[in-house]
Amino acid sequence: MRARSSATMGVSLNLFSLLSTMVLLLALFVSAENEKLVNSRFVGTEELQSSKNHQWQWQTGYNVKPLGLDLKNLGRLFGYHSFPCSCSAQTLSLQLDLALTSYDFYFFTSDEALNEHAVDNPDEIASMVDMSIRNSTERRNLGFFSCATGNPVDDCWRCDPHWQLHRKRLANCGIGFGRNAVGGRDGKYYVVNNPGDDDPINPRPGTLRHAVIQDQPLWIVFKRDMVITLKQELIMNSFKTIDGRGVNVHIAYGACITVQFITNVIIHGLHIHDCKPTGNAMVRSSPSHYGWRTIADGDGISIFGSSHIWIDHNSLSNCADGLIDAIMGSTAITISNNYFTHHNEVMLLGHSDSYTRDKLMQVTIAYNHFGEGLIQRMPRCRHGYFHVVNNDYTHWEMYAIGGSAEPTINSQGNRYLAPNNAFAKEVTHRVETNNNWKHWNWRSEGDLLLNGAYFIASGAGAAGSYARASSLGAKSSSMVGTITAGAGVLNCRRGYQC
């Protein structure tokens, strides 16, 4: 009996020794890999890397001491009020891995053929929105990260209480024509800690302008609440995400955002208001280029000759010209979950009736709330293809949707509440036509028309012309109130669902 026990003990010791050796080898491997991560990955530019204020740089790798992040700040980064926290080392390593992987430095040329992204079959993309909505409902039934809103964008990420660890998942939640906009998903984080804009030619590191002009992909976040008053247009570079979640960021009382001849931009979680005309000045658009800018109109967001753009969960109001304008061959755009208020000409999509290159334009307008103080252009379209789906129109003074130059407008599952003015009940408005509008493809499918609102459809067969891939329609208009309840900037706090 004793001999058998000794033999058993020997086998156990051998197994323990073998397991210990394996654990040691694994630890050495992980340590080596982590050292590679620390040595090869960084945030921002060399100027940022050499800055003394390392606390506002988010780093990859688990060895944070050489990177200037003390344990207290590291804890705050992951939503803990104090640190060391009660979590285990394994848990922290897992959180670090989830939060800080996939930030390798990739470079892209900025002279891509930006307007080669129009899809062959726009109705097919419209149906993808429908499919996304149905998939959202299925996820809700399965209880997988769902807020039970039926909004496929929000149900994709908002219910995760650790959203701040997984910010870049947002880039995988797009829908519609702009669904492939990755923004800065494949780049580093850049943390804006300075609201200033002293020099549009030589912006300071740590400012929003310095972030958006960089050549590499960047996911731009903010250290704290701030109001940014821009001296001149904020001219963005390709592959950028501006992510205002978790703080209160206003771009206001000066110039605003210009997206010109670039691709892959996500703008999320900003208050954009009181934008003013600026210009007749030199402005930097990349680390290697600045040039003369003529007078800008004072749009909130101006999209010019660009593609793969996603504008989501922003609050926009009271700008000198449009809140969002997309012109000059821009395409592959989604405008979703925004809250528009107090403005005249809300949204222009298309440069002019004579600019036929806008026939490539394809824009999805989904889950937005068009609120108080709006007058017209929600949107005003030219030439292209526009899918207007599950929006809440609670206010307009002249009309909601207008157009010229034969645009295709596919209105599905919206809620249109007409004003009390008996002369402004019509949802639609054809601009500067000679009765040719009867051939334009405009349809209303499943829309809820309230307080005397009416939609004048047109086109050969009206409904039949849209039957190819999108005839199933969108979510029921009776759900619009729920779907758009979170429109505009969200109140997101670390450790809680947004």
TrEMBL record:
**Molecular-function annotations in GO:** metal ion binding; pectate lyase activity
Asked whether the keyword Transferase is assigned, the reply is no
The EC code for this enzyme is 4.2.2.2
One GO term of the biological process aspect: pectin catabolic process
Q: Which reaction does it catalyse?
A: Eliminative cleavage of (1->4)-alpha-D-galacturonan to give oligosaccharides with 4-deoxy-alpha-D-galact-4-enuronosyl groups at their non-reducing ends
Q: Does the keyword Lyase apply?
A: yes
* Signal sequence annotation: 1-32
Q: How is the cofactor bound?
A: Binds 1 Ca(2+) ion. Required for its activity.
What keywords is this UniProt entry annotated with? Calcium, Cell wall, Lyase, Metal-binding, Secreted, Signal
Named in its record, the pathway it takes part in is: Glycan metabolism; pectin degradation; 2-dehydro-3-deoxy-D-gluconate from pectin: step 2/5
| Subcellular localization, as worded in the UniProt entry | Secreted, Cell wall
Q: Which domain of life is it from?
A: Eukaryota
**Cofactor(s) in the UniProt record:** Ca(2+)
- Location of the Pectate lyase domain: 225-422
Q: What class of enzyme is it?
A: lyase
Q: Which Gene3D superfamilies match?
A: Single-stranded right-handed beta-helix, Pectin lyase-like
Record family assignment: Belongs to the polysaccharide lyase 1 family.
| Name used for this protein in its record | Pectate lyase
Q: Which organism encodes this protein?
A: Prunus armeniaca (Apricot)
